[in-house]
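Check out one such.
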Amino acid sequence: MTVMDTALPQTPATVRREALYFAFRNVKLLIGLTIVLVLLGIGVLGPILVSGTPNAYSGLPMQPPSGEYWMGTNTFGQDIWVQFVYGLRTTFEVGLLGGGIAAVIGMVIGFLAGYRGGWVDEILNMITNVVLVLPTLAVLLIINAYLGIRSVGVQALFIGLTSWPWAARAIRAQTFSLRTREFVDLARLSGVRTPKIILREIAPNMSSYLFMTFILLFGGSILIASSLDFIGLGPTEGVSLGLMLQNAHQWSALHLGLWWWFVPPGAGITAIVGALYVANVGLDEVFNPKLRET
């Protein structure tokens, strides 16, 4: 056997450097992250830089885009650019909170079911299947319709509580394949408790998969929230991209030819969700050696 025939084990630092090497060369990942970060920057910094509030009557109604009003005004004389900036922030908040809640629940149930197995797996799998077959949008419609005061936090909470089952099943399947590995058996024989084994041994080996799962939940939360906003069941205070679309539809922006009222929020939602999914495909190519472009 020669030196070239021996395979050197990869350390965590080597794996990270290799992932970064391919990440900076993956066009899909770079484009997706750039779009998301630009829109996130507008949503975070925009409300600080723009003057006025989103619902303030700041000018003449139905003004097309100009140097004074970058995205024009609606039929009430409200600045659409100001609404768009605030709407981006709200949209990202819903995606972060809703996706984060769903990710945490999915990880907890998926890890416990996959690692413990037996009756624990059966009970958690039964709960997952029950939530999975529920008509999510219908449940959210009923809940939101009967809430007197609807806020971004409440909306994100209910989205997170109903969006986790597919993530839990996917994480459970991955945990099943990892719990019989030698390093997990060694930790178990050493007397390490279950939570530490999951956090220190199993979860780090699934970090890339967990991150991609969160991205999908993030985008899914934004789509669900936008759907609720569009049919009039969004937050009762503030503004979001979905609420902008709902107002544009309600006040006949399409029939009046006010394209600058409904195009920006629709394009914003499409750009965020589309960029997240493109970035997710890029991450899959980075972390999966079979899909990497050398």
In short: The radius of gyration is 23 Å. The longest helix spans residues 80-116. The chain has 13 helices and no strands.
